[in-house]
């Protein structure tokens, strides 16, 4: 069974204080690892897809990295508008046409001005 | 594109009543997913369709839940009869094209069963 564990559950940062969120996973065969951002009362918003160990993706103040067992979402000099819950999900090779995602419970990030 | 559209956005009902949630996927997308999100269990896949055909419904909690996709632009998730433990936020997502593995989510329906 695919499993995704995110840590910490919650993180409070001062504006400008860089940090990282962790996503540990176990999956039979990784097709992709996904990062989503979710604001209160809204649906998850796609951020990144990582496909293989060593891959990195960047978007503004966010950078996602991937190893064979975990992924990190690095936040550089965060701003209050980066406050949200960040969700990690894995997609496994489990048969033709199967694209289901298994999600972690998320890290709630609060950036204080 | 308008994105994935869900209705209603909020639903309050009494235990035992039938609830129908609706979803319109992004035009041209051929995969549609229904998820449920709770504080305790996070985001869980209930069922997904490919080209209007249900592929995997192993996440549907019990027979009280059913989902249909009569055409490429419309899907429903029905709960009959509803129970208080069904209270959650229900999301619909769709994907297609060269990036079919990337899912785009709707705004969700917040369901409260009293």
Question: Which terms would index this structure?
Answer:
heterodimer, A: 113 residues, mainly beta, six-stranded mixed β-sheet, five-stranded antiparallel β-sheet, globular, B: 114 residues, seven-stranded mixed β-sheet, four-stranded antiparallel β-sheet, 11 strands, 54% strand
Radius of gyration of chain B: 13 Å
Give the low-confidence spans of chain A. none
Largest sheet of chain A, if any? 6 strands, mixed
- How much of the sequence lies in strands of chain B comes to over 45%
The greatest interface between two protein chains, and residues involved on each side, is: A-B, 24 and 24 residues
Helix content of chain B: under 10%
Give the N-to-C terminal Cα separation of chain B.
36 Å
Structural class of chain A: mainly beta
Described by the principal axes of the CA atoms, the overall outline of chain B is: globular
Shape of chain A: globular
Largest sheet of chain B: 7 strands, mixed
């Amino acid at each position: 069974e695919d499993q995704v564990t995110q840590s910490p559950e919650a993180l409070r940062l001062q504006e400008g204080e860089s940090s990282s969120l962790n996503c540990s996973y176990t999956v039979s065969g990784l097709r992709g690892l996904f990062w989503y951002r979710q604001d209160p009362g809204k649906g998850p918003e796609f951020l990144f897809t990582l496909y293989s160990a060593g891959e990195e993706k960047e978007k503004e103040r966010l950078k996602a990295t991937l190893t064979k067992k975990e992924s990190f979402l690095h936040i550089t000099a965060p701003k209050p508008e980066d406050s949200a819950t960040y969700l990690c999900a894995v997609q496994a090779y489990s048969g033709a046409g199967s694209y289901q995602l298994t999600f972690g419970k998320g890290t709630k990030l609060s950036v204080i001005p | 594109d308008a994105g994935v559209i869900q209705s209603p956005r909020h639903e309050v009902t009494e235990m035992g009543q039938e609830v129908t949630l609706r979803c319109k996927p992004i035009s041209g997308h051929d995969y549609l997913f229904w998820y449920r999100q709770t504080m305790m269990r996070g985001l869980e896949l209930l069922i997904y369709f490919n080209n209007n055909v249900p592929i995997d419904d192993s996440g549907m909690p019990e027979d009280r839940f059913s989902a249909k996709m009569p055409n490429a632009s419309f899907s429903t998730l029905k709960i009959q009869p509803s129970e208080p433990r069904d209270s959650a936020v229900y999301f619909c997502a769709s994907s297609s094209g060269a990036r079919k593995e990337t899912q785009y989510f709707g705004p969700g329906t917040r369901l409260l069963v009293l």
